[in-house]
Structures are given as C-alpha cells and as structure tokens.
Amino acid sequence: MIAAWDRRYAGETIALWNREAVMDGYKELTEESFDRIFLSNSYFDSGSAFVLLDAGGRVKGFACGCTGDDLPLGDTAGYLTCIVLSGDCKNDEHFGRMLEALERRFRQLGKKQAEVLFFNPMRLPWYIPDTPGHEHNNAPGVPVDSALHRFLLGNGYAERTRENAMYLHLSGFAIPDEIAAKEAKAAASGYSVGLFDPAKHSGVAEMLAGLNNPLWQKEIASCTAEGKPVVVASRGGTVVGFAGPVVRQDNGRGYFAGIGVHPDHEGHGLGTILFFRLCEAFRDIGTEYMSLYTGSGNPAIRIYEKAGFKTVKQFAVMRKELAR
Questions:
Q1: Rounded to an integer, what distance in angstroms lies between the CA atom of residue 313 and that of residue 144?
Q2: Which of 80, 186, 244, 285 has its CA 20 to 30 A from that of 65?
Q3: Which of 150, 127, 156 is nearest to 139 (CA)?
Q4: Which band of pLDDT confidence, cut at 50, 70 and 90, is reported for residue 323?
Q5: Are 162 and 296 in contact (CB under 8 A)?
Q6: pLDDT in tens, 40-87
Q7: Can you give the pTM of this predicted structure?
Q8: Which domains can be identified in the chain, with CATH numbers?
Q9: Per-residue burial over 175-192, b = 16 or more CB atoms within 10 Å of its CB, e = otherwise
Q10: Can you tell me the distance from the alpha carbon of 171 to that of 157, in angstroms, rounded to the nearest whole number?
Q11: Using an 8 Å Cβ cutoff, are 78 and 105 in contact?
C-alpha cells in the first residue's frame, strides 16, 4: 500500500536508501543528512512524500517531490526529487503507483507539469565514479540508464536535455598561455579579474539583477557581503561578472554556485577567464578537486575540457505535462 509520509518511517527509509539508491551512485544517508536534505528543508511538504509498505508494514519504497512558487518554474511545476524502491519491488507497477501519488499531489496544488530539474532545492549528493570517495553535492536530474530513467521515458516524461557531470583533480592545474593572452586582451579593454574587494568594487546587486537568476542573487550577494571569496570581473571598479564563491568543503571539493557575465559585457572572453581564475583560486586554498555539470550541447563544455575536466556521468532533465 501507499502511505503518506510520517516520521516513524525515517529509519527504514534511510536503510532503504542505503541499500538501493547507492546502487545508482548516490551517497549514503545518515539521520542527520536525511533530515537536512528532506525533512528540515524549507520546501519539504509531507503531502508530497510517500512510502510503499508491504503487508507487514515494512518500508519498500520512498517517493518525494517538492513545490514552491518562488522556485524557477515553481508557479506551474512540481519537482520530482526521487523514487527509490527495494530490489524485490523494483518494477513498473510500483514505480507507477508512487509516481501517480506524486503527480496527483502536484495537480492538487495547481501544478501543470512535473519537472526533474537541477533547480530542485533538495540536493542529492552522489559519488564521482573511479575516485577515492569524491562527491558532488547535487544531482541535476535522473541518472541516465537507471531504472527510474527508463520508467519515466516510458510514462510520459520527455528528456529535455542531458547534463554532463564533469570532474577535475586540481593537482598540477595551471593557467594556460592562451588564457593569459585572453586576459591581457580583456585588460586592454579596461577589464580586470580578481577576488572581490569591497574597498575596490561596487555594483554587485546590479550585475546579479542583470543575470536574472534568483539563486545567484541570494547566494552571491550574501557571500560578498559576508566576506566569502568570490572571483569577479570588473571595469572601472564596477562588477560585471562573477565566479564563485570559492569555498573548500570539508570533503576536499571546491564548491561554487556558478559563473555569470552581465549581458552588456559579453564578447570579451570574461566567462572563460573567470572560470580559469576560479580553478586557480581553489587550487591556491588547497582544494583537492572540482566537479560541475553542464548541458551536453553547451559550448562551454569545451572550456571545461581545456581546463582538464572529464565527463564522468550523465543525468537526464525531464518534463511531463500533467493532465487535469
């Protein structure tokens, strides 16, 4: 049977995750991380979380989604976070019952579509293949060729794009001569790239507003205000682009929210320069590795490859229009 979420299921759900979800590369959950990622998340809605129970009342499946009008597409879409099933229940019937419960909840909340999307605020960490436990902090979609991916493809979900997860060990990283030349050319046009300094730089809010990304507007503005390092491109002291923040996580990974250049200042190679200086800044603070994801058709993938990044995994971004 499908049951609505209740905290009494937490222990068995964590055990289920650690048996099954890890087979798709997801990181194991603890009571603390389960609470942080799901239950204490400001977007968690107990009405959008379900468990599959066997005849003895044991947890055999867990499904979770989330909604929020302030999320990208949030006024019309619900986000599908995960569906995890025990090996003896991993079939189309049980995937279908759990998916139906999630979609029914989205429709109740007035949503017109279901999204599997990288903007999901419930961030699921996963291990980078063929590394000593290195991990990425967020899955940008469904792992390609997983059982859930195959099921969704057969049940009305269109694959909108594939996200390439990329990885670089920072030992030996150096700025190539080609990038140094590009930076010199930008400097001749009045641009400079370096760490944000409130005594020298202004215009962060205006730059972020021009990029029209609510998550960046919140996080990067907070970092510059609090003194967390952010690499910025500027002209005459006015910030026109950013990369960062430059945060070494406890696991040795370099965390950054993104890279952006104000549309009025594109065409000078600033995005490329920002990215390479970001990698350098991470190396300089003792960061072991970096990981990121980008659309498989995004020309920026060539920049990442030039820096030494390799594609290590693919995720599918998916959508289904919900019938009323």
A1: 8
A2: 244
A3: 127
A4: confident
A5: yes
A6: 999 999 999 999 999 999 999 999 999 999 998 999 999 999 999 999
A7: 0.85
A8: 2-164+316-321 (3.40.630.30), 177-287 (3.40.630.30)
A9: eeeebeebbeebeeeebb
A10: 41
A11: yes
